[in-house]
Amino acid sequence: MAGDFPSKPMSLYATIWDASNWATSGGKYKVNYKYAPFVAEFTDLALHGCAIDPIQEVLASACSQKDDQLENNNYASVTPKQRVAMKKFRKNYMYYSYCYDTIRYSTPLPECVIDPVERRQFKDTGRLNFNERHHHHSKRSRQVPSMRNYGDQDED
Fold first, then answer.
1. Are strands 96-101 and 125-127 parallel, antiparallel or unpaired?
2. What global pTM score does this model have?
3. What is the DSSP string of 41-81?
4. Which residue, 18, 22, 13, 5, is CA-closest to 101?
5. Which of 45, 93, 106, 119 has its C-alpha lying 20 to 30 A from 39's C-alpha?
6. Sign of the dihedral through C-alpha 107, 112, 115, 119
């Protein structure tokens, strides 16, 4: 489909999973649907597939080849580089994990892989134990006053 653009704008529909009943302090912060429809923008989106005639609904042989390619790709595998990037992202941005929420889920759910090192960073509620790496100090508090030579003062 590269280079083939429709004469009318395309749209993509998605669902939004509303977790505000449990993921926001027990439902303290609800989704405000008055701001709907929610809009997402995609940059450099590459769609893999082939154009078909919607009236005939017959797949061309080129389409079946592309279907075979898509089905044979292993989208479930993660490269070591992607794994490192994901671990870094989780370390910097994740502040809750239901996998570590032992109060709500006494037994980890089947999809959870418990990392003992990561587990120590979370309370029994699944919320992050805030420590020094998550406190953001202003730039001013980190600056060291510079030594200035004022007038007749000697530099010792």
1. antiparallel
2. 0.41
3. --SS----S----TTT----HHHHHHHHHHHHS-TT---HH
4. 22
5. 93
6. negative
Amino acid at 91: K
Instruction: Summarize pLDDT for 46-66 with one digit per residue, the tens.
Output: 776 666 666 776 666 667 777
In the block, tokens 């994901």 appear at 86
Structure tokens at 46: 């590459």
Please check whether residue 110 lies inside any domain of the structure.
Answer: yes
Q: Is residue 39 part of a domain?
A: no
What contacts 152, CB < 8 A, 6 or more positions away?
A: none
Could you tell me the two tokens for 33?
A: 């649907």
Q: Which domain holds residue 110?
A: 94-134
Mind listing the pLDDT tens digit for each residue in 81-101?
999 998 898 888 888 898 999
Element (H, E) at 37: none
Q: Which two tokens stand for residue 31?
A: 């989704």
